[in-house]
Amino acid sequence: MLRGMKVLFLLLIFCCWAGSAQGAASAPRPAKGTSKPTARAAPAIEIPETTFDFGEAFEGVEVEHDFVVKNTGKAELLIDQVRPG
């Protein structure tokens, strides 16, 4: 019984390894002429002020504040989703 469990465990490990190797081999590659940013040419976001306290806000009065977002990296910084918190 114990030997059967060992064989089953090794078979499971082999299947996981083979599946991950297959997935890595079939991963899409970037089209020719396009380049993926390297570690040196990656975007880097800098947000000096991450919170702002409006203090007391009255009902019906619109409040507004601008946050500065700066790309200090060497590649284009894409912001595709912003969530208020």
Automatic annotation (TrEMBL):
State the name under which the record lists this protein. DUF1573 domain-containing protein
Q: Spell out the residue ranges making up region: Disordered.
A: 23-42
| Organism placement in taxonomy | Bacteria, Pseudomonadati, Thermodesulfobacteriota, Syntrophobacteria, Syntrophobacterales
Q: Which Pfam families match?
A: DUF1573 (PF07610)
Q: Which residues form the signal peptide?
A: 1-23
Keywords on record: Signal
